[in-house]
Amino acid sequence: MSSTAQAITELTGDYTIDPAHSRIGFVARHAMVTKVRGSFTRFQGIVHLDEHDLARSNARVVIEAPSIDTGNQDRDAHLRGNDFFAMDEFPEITFTSSGVEQVGEQDFTLTGELTVKGVTRTVTIEFAFQGTAKDPYGNLRAGFEGKTTINRRDFGVTTNFALETGGVLVSDKIALEFDISLIRS
């Protein structure tokens, strides 16, 4: 048994996402020439891992949409408004898993329902297991890195602006990035 498999067999249990040591981020192409990166700074999640029966593993994440942070207050305010996320009406982004599949020694896909702006679509996120550690307080931690790409139009985020030189201001494809630190409950 590889050391990775041994680490994975230690994982069965219930966990919470540690927001102080996790990141839920995104990348969008801007003006067809560069990328803008951002993240959500407030979120919570619960995860159940079962290495004996992956089908019993599950996750639920709730993101406070107004916590969006791209490093630019004016852009963040615009994203919170009706042109994009209408966060007064839709203050949460949620993900509830419906299945997990192991696709490599340390690689998994997590499929579930993502709800943005009141629209729910099935998405699949690729995750790589990063290992486990006991922190100085005796907590078992497990780390995962994940990514997927969505089309923002599928979630009703359709505002865009045509550029004089051709193309649009904001890409339809949005890369989602996850750096997740779990703490066993």
From TrEMBL:
Going by the entry's taxonomy, the superkingdom of the source organism is recorded as Bacteria
Quote the SMART domains the UniProt record gives: YceI
InterPro entries according to UniProt: Lipid/polyisoprenoid-bd_YceI, TTHA0802/YceI-like_sf
Family as reported in the entry's similarity comment: Belongs to the UPF0312 family.
Show where the Lipid/polyisoprenoid-binding YceI-like domain sits: 14-183
Q: What is the lineage of its organism?
A: Bacteria, Bacillati, Actinomycetota, Actinomycetes, Jatrophihabitantales
The organism named in the record is: Jatrophihabitans cynanchi
Output this protein's name. YceI family protein
